[in-house]
Amino acid sequence: MTPPSPNNGPVLREHSYDGIQEYDQKLPNWxxxxxxxxxxxxxxAWVAYYQLSLGESGExxxxxxxxxxxxxxxxxxxxxxxxxxxxxxxDEKIVGAGAATFAxxxxxxxxxDLSAHINGxxxxxxxxxxxxxxxxxxxxxVLSIVRKGAPDLTKGMPPWEPQLGLTRVVEVVAFIxxxxxxxxxxxxxxxxxxxPGAAATPPPAAAASVTxxxxxxxxxxxxxxxxxxxxxx
Length: 233
Description:
The protein contains nine helices and six strands; from the N terminus they run E-E-H-H-H-H-H-E-E-E-H-H-H-E-H. By secondary structure, the protein is mainly α. The chain folds into two domains: 10-51, no CATH class; 59-190, Cytochrome Bc1 Complex, Chain D, domain 2. The longest helix has 23 residues, at 29-51. It is elongated.
């Protein structure tokens, strides 16, 4: 039995483990009530969240946060103009960040010097260091292609905004524009879909589909000897 403590102080228990004894002391009331409240709150939260489906789930909170980020990005896009992108192309910090992203993401198709050639071999991408553009050479047009990809993803560049994010895409565009001068002439490539009448040209597969099928061969008439003689009476 634990002996009473003088002056109502801490009680030292008789048992010992490796020469170590412990006190038998009552926990403070504030600690006990905090523990009780926590347990009650857990039961209420468990019933409300998991059984009654009150409040937003974790998935809904993530979707809401992503939608909020998307709305902020759209507002930032509305502020971008050709002049602002040209101004960014003169900012060494932005251009440096864009060059770093370009070196790790874009060189495989456009080459380090933006020529789309390495040792005389043509790479899959379009040259970015001349004044000829397939999808438009205005800064906002270049930004749109990098963000959303080419209209025909089977033949052109994929969209990079989902992988890089809007900020890094803008930095890459600023880096590309830093290799050009504002007001320089812009020409469209021969296969540019922006040329007048380019969209009206039917694809080869559509023209082949209107070819009428060949008529089936006529069945030859049966020989006269195959006709049975009429029966006499």
